[in-house]
Amino acid sequence: MTVLGILPATHALADAPVQSLLDQLSSLSNYSPSSIHPSRYIHSSYNPVDSPNDYDLLADGLVELLDDSELLADLVFRAPPPFTHNTQHAFQLYKSLANNASATAHSILAFLYDTGYNSVVDPHPGLALLHYTFAALAGHTPAEMALAYKHSIGDGAELSCDQAVEWYSRVADKAMDYYLSGPPGGHALPLSKPKLSDLKGGPYGLGASAASTGENAYRPVIYAGKARDSGENWHDLIDYFSFAANQGDLQYAVRLGNIYYHGSVYTPKFGPADGSGAIPKDFNKAKYWFTRATRKIWHDGLQSDKQREATKYTRHLVSIASNALGRMYLRGEGDAGTADYSKAYKWFNRARDLQSAEAVYYLGLMYKHGYYVDSNEDTATMHFSSAASSGYPEAYVELGNGLLARGDTENAIQHYEWAVNLSASFEGTYRLATLTRHHDCASALARFKSVSERGDWLTGDKLWQEATQRWALSSDWHRESYGRHEAEAALLAWWRLAEMGYESAQNNVAYILDQDTQRVRLTSFGFDPPVNHTLAFISLRYWEKSAAQHTLDSRIKAADYHFKGLGTPADPARAAELYLAADTSSLALWNVGWMYETGQGLPSDLNLAKRYYDQALETNAQAAVPVLLSLAHLYLKSLWQWVRSGDDNNLLSHFSGGGEAQDDAGASADGRSAREREEDRDRSDAREAVNRVDWMAYGAGDQGAHVPHGHLGFVDGLLQRSSPPDGHHHHDSSQSITFVVVIGTLVALLYLRQYIMGRLRQRAVDRLTAEITRRAHEHAGHTAARGQTQASEQVQAEVRQQQEQPEQEVRHRNNARRDDHDHNDDT
Question: Which residue intervals make up region (Disordered) (predicted)?
């Protein structure tokens, strides 16, 4: 059936529904996927159907109604259902648009040539660089960021810090201009961008990943992941906070105000709120809760300055609420959206009386710019100095700006550094990067990159929100075709951000396409699921890019891929380098110990194996069970080697004095043994090797060396990893057998422990039940009525009498028999 065949059926759609659709799609970067549902665009006379083919026909008919070529290309490339994106068609449309000097088209073509997305074209780094350059020269921000990132790591472009700084500085300049164009204090920064893996505790799960161990276990994203997995949602949390606040709990009223003001459940003291707890902002609700909190001291709100007596903690919480109200009135947030400087001034003064450094800073802004009060630079500087002395970071930025205006660059830099060290101040980071770019290129590069990614209101943040919403929507829709469609659209958005240098997006792409999701791999027994090596190649690429941005779990993941030969030839030595470079992770340390034990990637050395197992336990106490089992296996192996050959390379040699003598013989002038010196060399080599990532190996020329023959679509394999592996990597079967035995023993021990604990709990319950029953009987006996007690005693007497009657009869018969026996004896 052709498109023309359904046009009459969809003609009735051409008025209201289609126009509504076009209005929303006029800027796809602003649309909310959750608000778009297929049934919305189906006319009532056109019976809603569940067949994807019918939806596709309807979508084709609507696409024909579009006249805007750029909108049509965007729609075909990444549209919401019921439209199905067609990458090949979009590629042709973008090629035509690029010929007409469309910067957006050049940027999309560059992405396609760079990644070979969906196999629409073969990867071509040269053409990708060319199109990125065209788009960047036209001022296209995503292309500028992608070009800067490529120059910073040498991926398909010349490795040049100066070029990277040049392109990142252009993006940072635009971000700062937008920031300063906002209300007093600047536009609120976008929410942070959490990783999908962090919501699961990291790629290795809670407690095993570096993302959720040590201090990282207290990160908001970890709490968010636990809450989601337990079935909680933010509505339940806000309901609880509301209940507590309505009961008079002041802290919950302040927390609710912050939640609605920042648009996140997790609101830090400084900087952007956390995106893992995102909720819609509502300034009116925020103002309501802040106002209720201030009534703990000012019953009449703004009508009276008379304060009630309050504790120090209450005054602290009310100062937060008072300062927030002053900020909202100053910035025109809530109600009609207009500022009220007089109310702002009054609330800031109240907060200052309650020792709020932030209120002093904002009073300084009001004196600097003349909001409600006469402009006075000296008074403003006095307020900034007072706030800075109390540790408020943005006050240092204002003092630095003043010093810079007077030509005192050295002291200005010092103030900006203080602001950045206190809270990673957005403006302070930008000022510092601008002033130091010519004599410290590496630091300026990192700072400009940070500003570009944090201040991405108009580009990256919208694309990130789209990806997050569509990923969530993919699990909500039960139709498999539409759920997968949304997942692929989310992946595409994160993939584009990954090429722009966002580490969180690189991590998400690698995590979604991860081909090493098995926690236990039993290659020798053939139990491993099939691996799609094309997706493994892509996943490894982004694990390594994420690792290069100092992400510990990504570094370990990349090492796993190199060790197991996923997406690349197996290289245990390279894996060992990456594991050794991640020496703050217990998982990496355990892997190094295992490699020393088995001699894979590192020389066999049971003593070093034990050392790394011990370090793994010292790093993370949750590794106690696997370390204990590994040490048990290590001692058994050492005993077997000693019995079989008397090898000195075993743990038992220490007990016989051989190991100690060997260490003394190899001791250096500084008191270290030869083994310790060798270990230090290994660590040094690993730190140097971790940054030796051959990015150019990911170009089209080397791709065939790592990717199996045959056409494997990137996105088509996203949710169905059914491509058979090219071959198995053979390992020593004895190691797998030993591992299976160890795991079986561990399971048995855990089951036995659970059984014993269950029996102990049951015994405790039985004892408690018996004690409760005894006390209940005693209580009932003491409180019973006297008549009931007498009746009970009478009944008990009758029972005893009935029990004694048979006993008396038995005694009587026995006595009669004894008398008869005595009589017979006498006779």
Answer: 654-686, 776-827
Half-sphere exposure of 541 (CA within 13 A, CB side): 23
Contacts by 467-471, CB closer than 8 A, 24 or more apart: 467/491, 467/493, 467/494, 467/497, 467/505, 467/508, 468/275, 469/32, 469/33, 469/34, 470/33, 470/80, 471/196
Question: Is 605 found in the same domain as 492?
Answer: yes
**pLDDT tens-digit series, residues 780-797:** 554 444 444 454 555 456
- The pTM assigned to this predicted structure is 0.76
The reply to whether 104 falls in a domain is yes
Give the position of tokens 């892997």.
Answer: 591
Q: Which domain holds residue 60?
A: 1-83
- Neighbouring CB atoms inside 10 A of 207's CB total 15
Both 125 and 4 in one domain: the answer is no
Q: Are residues 711 and 639 in the same domain?
A: yes
Q: Do 91 and 117 belong together in one domain?
A: yes
Q: Is 377 exposed, middle or buried (0-12, 13-18, 19+ CB in 10 A)?
A: exposed
Question: What's the rounded Cα separation, in Å, for the pair 479 and 56?
Answer: 14
The answer to whether 633 and 742 have CB atoms below 8 angstroms apart is: yes
Q: What angle do CA 501, 502, 506 make, to 5 degrees?
A: 95
| Spatial CA neighbour of 595 closest among 692, 611, 27 | 611
Same domain? 583 vs 565: yes
Identify which of 53, 54, 49, 52 has the alpha carbon closest to the alpha carbon of residue 39: 49
Q: Report the distance separating Cα 269 and Cα 425, nearest Å.
A: 12
Question: Is the same domain home to 661 and 635?
Answer: yes
State the amino acid at position 9 in one-letter form.
A
Q: Report residue 261 CA to chain centroid gap.
A: 22
188's CB contacts (< 8 A; 6+ apart) are 182, 262, 272
Res. 673: pLDDT tops 50: yes
Residues 477 and 592 occupy one common structural domain? yes
Q: How far is it, in rounded angstroms, from Cα 418 to Cα 437? A: 18
pLDDT bucket at 87, cuts 50 / 70 / 90? confident
